[in-house]
Amino acid sequence: MIVSTTFVLLLATCQTFANNLVSRQANLNSCLSTAGITTVVASDPSYANASLAYNRRFQYSPAAIVYPSTPEAVQTVVQCASGQSIPVVARSGGHSYAAFGLGGQNGALVIDVSQMKAITVDAPTGIAHVQTGNRLGELAEALWNQGQRALPHGTCPYVGTGGHASFGGYGLFSRTAGLLLDRVVSADIVLANGTSLTASNSSNADLFWAIQGAAPSFGIVTAFSYATLAAPVNTINWQIAYTSQISKVQAVSILSAYQTFAFSNPPNALSVLLFISPDGKGSISMGFSGSFYGTEEDFTTAITPLKNGLPGAPTLTSNSFNWIDGMTAIDGPLATTQPDTHDTFFAKSILINSQMSNDSWTSWVNYMTTTGASSSGTGGLAWWAQIDLYGGAISSIASGATAYSPRDAVLNIQFYGPSGQDTPFPAVGITFMNGLVSSLTADPYAAYSNYADPTLTADQWHKLYFGSNYRRLTVIKRDVDSNNLFSFPQSIEVAADGVTATASGSQSTGTAPSKSSALASARLWPSSLLWASGTAALIYGGSTLIFYNFLKLHI
After folding, report:
1. What span, in angstroms and rounded, lies between the C-alpha atoms of 251 and 526?
2. Structure confidence by residue, pLDDT tens digits, 437-487
3. Where are the alpha helices (DSSP H) in 217-295?
């Protein structure tokens, strides 16, 4: 009798939740329709395409996708969602590795800012006001055309500036000029209550601190203002290549030599990346490339220690360009007029701040040349790894000066495993990619949040992405979004009542230079509501109210 009563109560409760969800969806649709903002819902023919993830390993069903064209329209959309307690996410370029721009789960309201593309540069100050619907290619072209200005950022023209700047924004120019978020001087943001404000070091400073590393957890940023730089006069793109097969012993020596060079404090004007992939013959291919911003003479001085430290007889080639031509030589055309590409993949990352042992490099090479060379071991993934030289201007800023915390990293390793654009991802692929990391280190110091890894536990991503800054972030989240409107699987959680920014209650940001002072010294110018389909569930505000799956009910 008790079991029967429990069943009836659960069934009734779940039916109530399901009805509530349907009602909220209807109310949301009505609110958006009244506002006159372009909206795509599940019944629309364009919904399937609009809800496609860049990473086809994920498929989610948003409550709706809206396309506001003004900050005021964003405010209206947020007010519509807030009234229905539906989680809200921003989508700039849509390139999130974990499809967080679609919510990272079913049932989110996606605010796609791709219609907001204004870019203006104030000539006297060099400050660029950039709406977050712009892609990196559009940003680079506009800055060049408006006074030959430049910013540090990634090399994929189609990546959205909003997400890129929110979580870091690393590129070849970053050792010289910092991360893209380090150039941000203010942000226009719509908060959970539908109001809009500008955050900077002098106004709404706590929120501005949080935006610099975790912006989507706190609101919808409609525009960033950046302190741009005069574009370097000369860019030298270079490569160091091996023309013969690399042995395991050589591979370990190459990694060790690169690490030694990286920790020798090379000039900030030099960027370096080492690309590693299987060679199809049971070994791996390895090659270096990068850019240098300066004269040929200074480049030779900077690159010689790296080349001379490498085993074998690799060849060095280089070419000089102006800023914009040097960028397109690597990135390809900057225009984003063609349809964007997509992929099916799983990626991971680690940041390194202390030297790895030769045993660690040997273990990694052994894994890459055994399991990594086997189709059964990889599931057929066309995997690769890339080791970027970090540090420079990035490390001139204190780890507590922005929400982005891993400032003392020297190397950034991305592990990327694609199965192909439209090829289902193999189950063994996750295991293999995790092994690429664990064969090198069992305890990573940090990871790069723009390479989002949705398989990390909460404790893991708190530590790897935000370190000791996470606690302060939760307190700011409580202050500006206590109902957790802006939520996705790796969004900042809301601090419990009584929790302070640090264990001692202070908000110390450490003793290293602040962001502004570091940039000056470097002479740089200026939760979730799960959609019920077969499952009736309501998980909101971080506490599980009920979870009931009709298809798996066993009483």
Report:
1. 42
2. 999 999 999 999 999 999 999 999 999 999 999 999 999 999 999 999 999
3. 248-262
The hierarchical CATH code for the domain 2-114+529-552 is 3.30.465.10
Q: What distance in Å separates the CA atoms of residue 254 and residue 275, rounded to the nearest whole number? A: 12
- Phi, psi of 239, deg, nearest 5: -145, 145
Instruction: Kindly report the number of other CB atoms within 10 A of residue 18's CB atom.
Output: 18
Question: What is the mean predicted confidence (pLDDT) over 70-77?
Answer: 98
Helix (H) or strand (E) holding 26: helix 2-35
Angle of CA points 88, 459, 514, to nearest 5°: 80
How long, in residues, is the chain?
A: 555
The model's pLDDT over 215-238, given as tens digits with 9 standing for 90+, comes to 999 999 999 999 999 999 999 999
C-alpha distances in Å from residue 258, one per residue of 304, 384, 411, 442:
12, 18, 10, 21
Residue with tokens 């040349």: 369
Q: Using pLDDT thresholds of 50, 70 and 90, give the confidence band for residue 131.
A: very high
Q: Is 537 helix (H, G, I), strand (E, B) or coil?
A: strand
Tokens standing for residue 254 = 């190459």
Q: In the CATH scheme, what architecture does the domain 235-322+331-463 have?
A: 3-Layer(aba) Sandwich (3.40)
Within a 13 Å sphere around the CA of 520, how many CA atoms are in the beta-carbon half? Answer: 6
Task: Give the domain ranges of the chain.
Answer: 2-114+529-552, 235-322+331-463
Rg over alpha carbons for the chain, rounded to the nearest Å, is 24
Of the candidate ranges 4-18, 67-81, 352-366, the one whose mean pLDDT is the lowest: 4-18
Which phi-psi region, left, alpha or beta, contains residue 254 (left: φ > 0; alpha: ψ -120 to 50)? alpha
Tokens describing residue 129: 């006001």
- The b/e string for 164-200 (b: 16+ C-beta within 10 A; e otherwise) is bbbbbbbbbbbbbbbbbbbbbbbbbbbbbebebeebe
Instruction: Please report, as a single letter, which amino acid is at residue 532.
Output: A
Of 551, 488, 511, the C-alpha closest to 100 is 488
